[in-house]
Specification:
The structure is a single chain. The protein is mainly α. It has 3 domains: about 1-65; about 70-160, Herpes Virus-1 (2-Layer Sandwich); about 170-340, Leucine-rich Repeat Variant, CATH 1.25.10.10. About 65% of the residues lie in helices and about 0% in strands. The protein is built from 24 helices and 3 strands. The chain has helices at about 1-35, 45-60, 105-115, 135-145, 165-180, 185-200, 200-205, 215-220, 230-245, 250-255, 260-270, 275-285, 290-300, 305-310, 320-330, 330-340, 345-350, 355-365, 370-380, 380-390, 395-410, 415-425, 430-435, 440-460, and strands at about 95, 100-105, 130-135. It has a 3-stranded antiparallel sheet with strand order 2-1-3. Helix 11 runs antiparallel to helix 12 (about 275-285), helix 11 (about 260-270) packs parallel to helix 14 and helix 17 runs antiparallel to helix 18 (about 355-365). It starts with a helix and ends with a helix.
């Protein structure tokens, strides 16, 4: 009887420790979510997380959790199907991979994060890395543990490495399912996905675990026959969610290469709320950080609607459109596309009107390596515009970009020499820049002066 009492006491102590650990994990989960929520002040949350971690460490030292999964001689050995093929231990959170095999979540996650894309047991290539809870095995393990006096922690209390619980993952999947449901459910799910991907980087990462996640998100936009049938708020939430996803580096290629993403972004550039249009431009900007995406976006024809949005000049959208065009035009072939789509005229008009001069001048300087762009600049009066700007602006970078464009024009079009020489004789604009500009501006200004002086000397010699 005494021995039986000791066993009961040990089980009670283990249960109490497990309950305390559960409370601490809940507190840790709340604190971590607060820390990653991008709020301004998370000092209290960090303190709470540290306290919870410290308490958990003390608890584990006194009551090692792993010991409850070992099989003493007095306890039956778990069936093989309850053991993880990787750890050989009793599974706490069994999940199914795409091949149908079941593993304990922490161990298969470690396998996948090491760069493996095959099933450890079958060696088959995984069609996706989404992990599906195996509720049947989980329930069978729970019943077996209960009948043998083993305390098995509830997996919902365990945070994954990304700060997500199993409940978070189930909720994520249910939201994606709702994107194929009624309009009312689509709107609710889209708004929640927008908020979750804004606040929690871990939710952005979830979209990278399955090739089907982004297409599911886009269902309301791809299944609608007419653009006029799309609810503006629903479109805005979906496009903004795409923007949030594209911030995550590992998602950039996945998002850009998903069929219909770029066409839907182009459509959003032309219609919807101004926030939808601005966020569509911002999404193309973030996606274009990857060189292969620059080519993909350029070939799709997205520069034209971006230039149209830039020309329209709405204060909320103009910077996002300019940033996207600049990034895309780093790729040489996209410069030709931008020139063909009317970028030079739009940029010069904005510069003359003193609208976001810094951004527009940077793009113009980038396009000046394209011969067709240089010809258009000359025809559209870029020379006097840029010379005036050098005199008027105090911004060294703008002076540098102006003289860089003028240098290209000067060396490409002899008909503009007279204009530049007259400016120099009247205001000494280029000479001053050759003395006081940035190192690049000095070099370009000196190059122009040298070209003009040689032209004069040749004339005198002749």
């Amino acid at each position: 009887m005494a021995k039986s009492g000791v066993v009961v006491e040990r089980v009670d102590a283990s249960a109490a420790a497990a309950a305390r650990a559960a409370e601490l994990r809940k507190e840790l989960e709340r604190a971590v979510k607060a820390i990653v929520s991008e709020e301004d002040s998370n000092v209290d949350a960090i303190d709470r997380a540290l306290q919870a971690l410290s308490a958990l460490k003390d608890l584990k030292t006194k009551h090692p959790q792993r010991s409850s999964f070992r099989e003493p001689a007095s306890m039956p050995s778990p069936p093989d199907e309850f053991r993880c093929p990787l750890s050989k231990e009793l599974m706490r959170d069994p999940v199914i991979v795409s091949t149908g095999q079941t593993y304990d979540r922490p161990f298969i996650q470690k396998w996948l994060k090491a760069g493996n894309r095959t099933c450890p047991r079958t060696q088959q290539v995984l069609s996706h890395t989404l992990l599906t809870p195996n509720h049947l095995i989980r329930d069978m393990i729970a019943r077996w543990c209960e009948s043998n006096g083993i305390q098995l922690p509830d997996p919902i209390l365990y945070l994954s490495d990304e700060g997500l619980t199993e409940a978070d993952r189930d909720h994520f999947l249910s939201l994606l399912e709702k994107m194929s449901s009624t309009v009312s459910e689509q709107k609710g799910a889209a708004r929640e996905l927008r908020l979750l991907t804004k606040r929690m980087p871990s939710f952005r990462a979830l979209f990278g675990e399955s090739v089907e996640a982004v297409p599911q998100l886009l269902c309301p936009l791809t299944q609608t026959k007419s653009q006029n049938d799309i609810h503006p708020d629903l479109q805005e939430d979906i496009i903004t969610t795409l923007l949030n996803l594209s911030i995550h580096d590992n998602n950039k290629k996945l998002v850009a290469e998903t069929p219909m993403v770029i066409p839907l972004l182009m459509s959003a550039l032309r219609s919807g709320t101004i926030e939808t249009r601005s966020n569509a431009a911002a999404t193309l900007f973030t996606l274009s950080a990857v060189d292969s995406n620059k080519a993909l976006i350029g070939k799709s024809g997205a520069l034209k609607p971006l230039i149209d949005l830039l020309e329209e000049g709405h204060p909320l959208a103009i910077k996002d459109a300019a940033s996207a065009i600049f990034n895309l035009c780093i790729l040489h072939e996209n410069k030709a596309r931008a020139v063909r789509d009317g970028a030079v005229g739009v940029l010069l008009k904005k510069i003359i009107d003193k609208v976001h001069v810094d951004e527009h001048l940077s793009i113009l300087a980038m396009l000046s390596t394209n011969q067709k762009a240089v010809e258009e600049m000359g025809e559209l009066g870029a020379v006097p515009c840029l010379l005036n700007l050098i005199r008027e602006t105090s911004c060294a970078r703008n002076k540098e970009n102006c003289i860089a464009v003028l240098h290209t024009i000067c060396f490409s079009d002899r008909t503009k020499w007279k204009e530049i020489r007259e400016e120099e004789n009247m205001h000494r604009t280029i000479s001053q820049l050759a003395r006081n500009g940035t190192s690049r501006a000095k070099r370009k200004a000196s190059g122009i002066l040298d070209r003009l002086n040689r032209a004069v000397n040749l004339t005198h010699t002749a």
